[in-house]
Write a structure and sequence with these properties.
The complex is a heterodimer of chains A (109) and B (114).
Chain A lengths: L3 E3 L2 E5 L4 E6 L6 E7 L6 E7 L4 E3 L4 E5 L4 E6 L8 E8 L5 E3 L3 E6 L1
Parallel strand pairs in A: 2-11
Antiparallel strand pairs in A: 1-3, 3-8, 4-5, 4-9, 5-6, 7-8, 9-10, 9-11
Chain B lengths: L4 E3 L2 E4 L5 E6 L6 E8 L3 E9 L2 E5 L6 E5 L5 E5 L8 E8 L9 E2 L3 E5 L1
Parallel strand pairs in B: 2-11
Antiparallel strand pairs in B: 1-3, 3-8, 4-5, 4-9, 5-6, 7-8, 9-10, 9-11
Classes of the chains: A mainly beta (109), B mainly beta (114).
């Protein structure tokens, strides 16, 4: 049931773009995205709901393909502050949020 | 408003002992979920409570248990500790138990079993 994230790690220079993918083998009700910096709590980035509704930060972009049970997080013009581990969490309409193993993103000057 | 508070922040226990971790959610939040975080495993779901009822449970042995009080505060207990239980334990609170609401995480309790 754990969603699969790819890639496992990304290294970027400031200003470059990245895409992080999340896929599930089961039909999804919602996909959540969080970022965790080392030694800190994960923080909320975005929720994408079945039917097209999205809630999240204006500077974050993501997509949700319901048919393929996939979501992608788009990080454009990356900044040093984007560094951290990104987790997607999936809910199968069971009120249980299951997270993937994470994608580690490092942005260098 | 105050965030999610987890206590204690750090714990060192020996094998065979038991431990209780505490989580105070954001005021007004009724759902509390617990996760175990270890390197390479991501966030493993332990259980979720809503209005004092355990609604969901992950694939962990019965040594892991929890409860939620009427004020939404939650505790997690691990009995007969094993070395493999060493991890960061995170709790997350949300307004309700639906998958359409964001979760707010606490700083976690770092448990080390020696």
């Amino acid at each position: 049931q754990q969603p699969v994230q790819s890639p496992q790690a990304v290294i970027l220079r400031e200003g470059e773009d990245a895409v992080i993918n999340c896929s599930s083998s089961k039909a999804l009700y919602s996909v959540h995205w969080y970022r965790q910096k080392h030694g800190e709590a994960p923080i909320f980035l975005m929720i994408l709901l079945k039917g097209g509704e999205q809630k999240g930060h204006d500077k974050i972009s993501a997509s949700f393909n319901e048919k393929k049970q996939q979501s992608s997080l788009y990080l454009t013009a990356s900044q040093l502050s984007y560094s951290g581990t990104y987790f997607c969490g999936t809910d199968l309409n069971t009120d249980k949020l299951i997270f993937g193993t994470g994608t580690r993103l490092q942005v260098f000057p | 408003k105050a965030g999610v508070t987890q206590t204690p922040r750090y714990l060192i226990k020996t094998r065979g002992q038991q431990v209780t971790l505490s989580c105070s959610p954001i005021s007004g939040h009724r759902s509390v979920s617990w996760y175990q975080q270890t390197p390479g495993q991501g966030l493993q779901f332990l259980f979720e409570y809503f209005s004092e009822t355990q609604r969901n449970k992950g694939n962990f042995p019965g040594r892991f248990s929890g409860r939620q009080f009427s004020n939404s505060r939650s505790e997690m207990n691990v009995s007969t500790l094993e070395l493999g239980d060493s991890a960061l334990y995170l709790c997350a609170s949300s307004l309700n138990a639906r998958g359409n609401t964001e979760a707010f995480f606490g700083q976690g309790t770092r448990l080390t079993v020696v």
